């Protein structure tokens, strides 16, 4: 059943003198739907996005970011319950299911897809994100869970087959299917992909697949760097990180919303640039919140804060301040992009741009409260 949503009021307190209202992105247009696309959910109103400086750690500069649009804890809990049931059913996170629940991927989807109150649509986003994160934890990042840079490339090749099954190849296909069905991480990807397929057009599904593959190319770079032990410059990491960002998650915005930004518009250079800026800004927030945890890993993963600190010989708080500045510059540029893109006139695009901003605000909110992250300013 749909849950009533609470839309948060406009800005109050610190930083609100810098707030800017995006009234032109407030909605008012019906969601477009391509022929063959599954019927969309009941559309919630889209209140104006409010950009403001948001405090996160007392001793650190604030992050410039849209305010959180909607909080609906009951909806987030319902989706988290569904996620736990799904994970237990496929054997994912066995022995760690409570840690998985505390991460709150259902809450992440509730906060970032603020125009939805249909649990199945929110679950779609949460399930796909949880599947991507499982690949990251078990294959790329967490050595205590079996992540091994020497095995990463081969594992990610199977991830590609889990999302985009190759055509049958006689008896070799049976061996592939057996391997895909034996690993809960790969089963998680395949089942999440099937859920996306039920709600997307072929073009949208291909977009999700290809963006995942793009993300995994960057993971292979990180794995090679960890394996070789070579120093990694911050600029090199950031170049890879821009293709391994929450842009991947943001490709689900119109899928979950029941409409479609046509491919030739979605990939139009200015639209693509705006979406990539939003995704990169959102993932810098992730780097800020995960820096301490990642520094303690046996084989520390690449992280913008850690790399800047090592490269410049500065403290973690000083490096974090540089990351905050970069984040704020990217969000301000994204805000300007959205103003410029009004000229394209597509209602679907305007709804999607609003969704990108809502994702930024909700992602900030989730990182501040997720059980995955423990933060200190040092």
TrEMBL record:
Cofactors required: Mg(2+)
Organism superkingdom: Bacteria
Keyword Magnesium on entry: yes
EC class name: lyase
Catalyzed reactions: (E)-2-methylgeranyl diphosphate + H2O = 2-methylisoborneol + diphosphate
Coiled-coil residues: none
Pfam families given in the database record: Terpene_syn_C_2 (PF19086)
Record EC number: 4.2.3.118
Cross-referenced NCBIfam families: f2_encap_cargo2
Family to which the UniProt record says this protein belongs: Belongs to the terpene synthase family. 2-methylisoborneol synthase subfamily.
Name assigned to this protein: 2-methylisoborneol synthase
């Amino acid at each position: 059943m749909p849950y009533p949503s609470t839309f948060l009021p406009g800005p109050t307190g610190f930083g609100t003198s810098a707030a800017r209202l995006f009234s032109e992105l407030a909605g008012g247009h019906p969601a477009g739907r391509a022929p063959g696309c599954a019927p969309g959910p009941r559309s919630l109103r889209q209140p104006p996005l409010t950009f403001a400086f948001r405090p996160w750690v007392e001793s650190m500069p604030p992050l410039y970011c849209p305010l959180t649009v909607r909080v609906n804890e009951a909806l987030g809990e319902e989706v988290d319950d569904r996620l736990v049931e799904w994970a237990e059913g496929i054997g994912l996170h066995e022995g760690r299911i409570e840690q998985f629940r505390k991460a709150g991927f259902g809450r992440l989807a509730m906060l970032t897809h603020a125009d939805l109150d249909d649990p199945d649509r929110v679950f779609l986003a949460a399930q796909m994100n949880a599947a991507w994160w499982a690949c990251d934890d078990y294959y790329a990042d967490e050595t205590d869970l079996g992540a091994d840079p020497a095995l990463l490339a081969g594992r990610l090749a199977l991830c590609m087959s889990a999302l985009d099954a190759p055509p049958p190849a006689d008896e070799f296909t049976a061996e592939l299917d057996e391997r895909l069905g034996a690993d809960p991480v790969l089963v998680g990807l395949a089942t999440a992909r099937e859920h996306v397929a039920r709600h997307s057009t072929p073009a949208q599904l291909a977009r999700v697949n290809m963006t995942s593959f793009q993300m995994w190319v960057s993971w292979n770079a990180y794995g090679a760097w960890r394996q070789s032990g070579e120093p990694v410059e911050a600029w090199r990491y950031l170049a890879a990180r821009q293709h391994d960002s929450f842009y991947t998650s943001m490709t689900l915005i119109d899928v979950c919303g029941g409409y479609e930004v046509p491919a030739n518009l979605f990939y139009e250079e200015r639209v693509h640039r705006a979406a990539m800026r939003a995704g990169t800004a959102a993932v810098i927030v992730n780097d800020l919140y995960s820096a301490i945890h990642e520094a303690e890993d046996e084989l520390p993963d690449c992280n913008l804060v850690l790399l800047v600190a090592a490269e410049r010989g500065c403290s973690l708080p000083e490096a974090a301040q540089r990351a905050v500045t970069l984040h704020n510059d990217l969000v301000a540029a994204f805000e300007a992009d959205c103003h410029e893109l009004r000229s394209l006139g597509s209602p679907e695009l305007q709804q999607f741009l609003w969704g990108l901003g809502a994702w930024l605000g909700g992602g900030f909110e989730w990182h501040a409260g997720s059980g995955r992250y423990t933060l200190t300013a040092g």
